[in-house]
């Protein structure tokens, strides 16, 4: 096991494209850390720099306190699992699993012992004589993971290893990855664009955007206490609803479109004398039927998505979305509210929704940073119920 540390790591490709920008990040010994972010944010480049497949333009990479920036990949004692499996097509499963051990000069009997043990652990013991073309996608991915596991490296690096699998298989493979990490405790850095994978697998999650680290923390930290608009909008599905609103001081309220919503005392204290803020409402902050003690809004359903035990109501955004903020790439014209399955609304019907402002998030419209608060709005709300 090992601690991995990146100190002010920057990668600039020929032509001037800056893929990673002064990234400093520590992955603790035995931790499962997930790197997430939109396509092109630099997360796979970070993984390749740690593996030694890319050279950093600036900065230092160290493993267990030893600088490895100038070491070749095979000297870093890391194992990488790729999105496309990267299996040798002419080799059997057993030969793929044992290839790295053979390169190290491990005795044949010991290779057989380790390969058999790893195959049994991953349910591959009946497939050892097959070649990759005779395997399903899930079986190939288990072989790719087994090839990394059999080496017993100090660090596992995984680059979107489940993205080629169907939804049901991804769920079972996530469980398998969690089980393997609990068993071996190997420091693992996992890249994905799938926030469900990130939230379910990671001890901590690091969110990247345009090569810069936006926030690192537990899944709960990033969901309930986002540092800025980008993290709030990236974490959570459906995405958070955002709107720039005017703040009224006395009585404390926010002006949202044509409506004025009174603020709960705790939220009013947070905002103070700010003239405007970006208001964030996650889809589950809406209530149907609308309670009498909450502000309400009546909207037209532009879409209704049934998910069995709940429904998602899509409607026109209630005001200007903060598209000018550097952390927001593309303003969304539609908002989403979660309601129960008993809401039999159809498209183009009107619906009145209550708005629980105890669950509201607030951000500075100039910087996109969260307005400071002692407690998460959601956790604060739950503690009083």
User: Which word captures the global form?
Assistant: elongated
Strand order of the largest sheet: 6-7-8-3-9-10
User: Which assembly state applies to the chains in this document?
Assistant: single chain
Strand content: 25-35%
Report the structural category: alpha+beta
Rg over alpha carbons: 24 Å
The helix tally amounts to 10
Distance between the termini: 43 Å
Helix content: 25-40%
Largest sheet: 6 strands, mixed
Which regions have little confidence, pLDDT < 50, spanning 5+ residues? 326-331, 374-385
* Whole-number mean pLDDT: 90
The number of distinct β-strands equals 21
Characterization of this structure:
The protein has about 375 residues and is α+β, with helices and mostly antiparallel strands. It is built from ten helices and 21 strands. Strands 6-7-8-3-9-10 form a six-stranded mixed beta sheet, sandwiched between helices. Strand 12 and strand 13 form a beta hairpin. Helix 2 (about 95-105) packs parallel to helix 4 (about 135-150). The longest helix is centred in the middle third of the chain and has 18 residues, at about 165-185. The chain is elongated, with a radius of gyration of 24 Å.
Give keywords:
six-stranded mixed sheet, 385 residues, 10 helices, 30% strand, 21 strands, alpha+beta
Q: Any chance you could write out the topology, listing elements then pairs?
A:
Blueprint: E1 4-12, E2 18-27, E3 32-36, H1 43-51, E4 58-63, E5 66-67, E6 78-81, H2 93-103, H3 108-121, H4 137-149, E7 155-159, H5 167-184, E8 187-191, H6 195-201, E9 204-209, E10 212-217, H7 219-224, H8 229-234, E11 241-248, E12 253-256, E13 259-262, H9 265-271, E14 276-281, E15 286-287, E16 296-300, E17 303-306, E18 310-316, E19 334-340, E20 350-355, E21 361-363, H10 377-383
Parallel strand pairs: 3-8, 3-9, 6-7, 7-8
Antiparallel strand pairs: 1-2, 1-4, 4-5, 9-10, 11-12, 11-14, 12-13, 14-21, 15-20, 16-20, 17-18, 18-19
Helix pairs in contact: 2-3, 2-4
């Amino acid at each position: 096991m090992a601690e991995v540390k990146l100190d002010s790591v920057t990668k600039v490709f020929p032509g001037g494209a800056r893929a990673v920008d002064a990234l400093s990040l520590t992955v603790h010994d035995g931790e499962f850390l997930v790197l997430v972010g939109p396509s092109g944010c630099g997360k796979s480049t970070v993984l390749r720099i740690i593996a030694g497949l890319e050279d950093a333009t600036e900065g230092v990479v160290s493993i267990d306190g030893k600088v490895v920036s100038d070491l070749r990949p095979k000297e870093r004692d890391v194992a990488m699992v790729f999105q496309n499996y990267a299996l040798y097509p002419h080799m059997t499963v057993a030969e793929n699993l044992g290839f790295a051990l053979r390169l190290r000069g491990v005795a044949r009997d010991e290779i057989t012992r380790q390969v058999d043990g790893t195959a049994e652990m991953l349910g591959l013991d009946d497939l050892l004589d097959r070649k990759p073309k005779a395997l399903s996608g899930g079986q190939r991915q288990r072989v790719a993971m087994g090839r990394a596991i059999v080496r017993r490296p100090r660090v596992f690096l995984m680059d979107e290893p489940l993205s080629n699998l169907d939804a049901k298989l991804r769920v079972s493979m996530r469980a398998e990855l969690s089980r393997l990490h609990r068993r071996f405790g190997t420091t693992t850095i996992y890249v994905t664009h799938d926030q469900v994978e990130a939230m379910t697998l990671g001890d901590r999650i690091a969110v990247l955007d345009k090569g810069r680290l936006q926030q690192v923390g537990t899944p709960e930290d990033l969901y309930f206490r986002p540092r800025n608009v980008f993290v709030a909008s990236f974490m959570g599905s459906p995405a958070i609803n955002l709107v720039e609103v005017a703040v009224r001081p006395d009585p404390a309220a926010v002006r949202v479109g044509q409506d004025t919503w009174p603020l709960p005392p705790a939220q009013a204290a947070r905002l103070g004398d700010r003239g405007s803020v970006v208001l964030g409402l996650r889809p589950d902050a809406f209530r149907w039927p609308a309670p009498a003690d909450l502000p309400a809004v009546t909207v037209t359903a532009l879409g209704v998505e049934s998910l069995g035990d709940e429904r998602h109501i899509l409607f026109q955004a209630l005001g200007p979305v903060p598209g000018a903020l550097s952390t927001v790439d593309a303003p969304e014209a539609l908002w989403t509210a979660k309601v129960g399955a008993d809401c039999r609304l159809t498209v183009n019907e009107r619906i009145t929704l209550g708005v629980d402002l105890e669950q509201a998030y607030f951000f500075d419209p100039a910087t996109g940073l969260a307005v400071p608060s002692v407690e998460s709005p959601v956790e604060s709300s739950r503690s009083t119920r």
